Amino acid sequence: MEALYPVVNCKAENIKMIMISEAIPQKMQDYFYSGVHATFFQTTQTAFADAGLKIEHPDELLDKGIYLTTAIKCTKKDYLVSAETIKSCSFPLEQEIDLFPNVRVIMCMGDFAIKAVNYIFKRKDGVRVISAGSTYKIRNQEYIHKGIRFYPSYTQTGDSFNIEKSKRTMIAQDIRSALDHVNQFS
Question: What tens digit of pLDDT does each residue of 113-169 get?
Fold first, then answer.
């Protein structure tokens, strides 16, 4: 399994929020930072618009201190991904997260992201930062560890018009809450 690591130019110290989606797209031209026509950017743009933040270009999120990435650093071959793959991919994700010293929020967009983040902090600090359970049951709980607030939510990548309306609403609520939390520190 060959890993892909997209390079994003930003000032690491300015990043206050990391949004971790599930897996990179089949084609890298669909990745978040591949331009305004990239599928992952468009669905993320829709999610932020639903939350009340209009963005026109991926760089606008970076300018606002929001970094987008994925838990799985290789393309998914099937709908399901093994726990071992998620665990293996959590190592490069950990290195990526560690690049940003001023992070206040980590949004875990989907089960793979939640699992990867839990692997990271279990390894580093011996704690599970997000409780086990269905996303709809755990998403409204407050998870804070070492000054970082963790938000479990649903993945915003994929076809935004095919995401259930109730999930789109919850994603928007979670993004709005995360943005409000980050703004407390501005």
Answer: 999 999 999 999 999 999 999 999 999 999 999 999 999 999 998 765 577 889 999
Sheet of strand 148-153: strand arrangement? 66-72, 17-23, 105-109, 148-153, 143-145
Q: Which two tokens stand for residue 124?
A: 């580093």
Compute the distance between CA of residue 177 and CA of residue 155 in angstroms, rounded to an integer.
Answer: 16
Ranking 14-23, 80-89, 119-128 by mean pLDDT, the lowest is 80-89
Residue 51 belongs to domain with CATH number:
3.40.470.10
Range of the domain at 64: 12-183
In contact, 75 and 120? CB cutoff 8 Å = no
Among candidate residues 63, 67, 89, the one with its CA nearest the CA of residue 76:
89
Indicate the pTM of the whole model. 0.92
pLDDT at 3: 40
d(CA 170, CA 176): 10
Residue 2 resides in a domain: no
Q: Answer yes or no: are the C-beta atoms of 73 and 24 closer than 8 Å.
A: yes
In the chain the beta strands, taken as DSSP E runs, fall at: 17-23, 66-72, 105-109, 143-145, 148-153
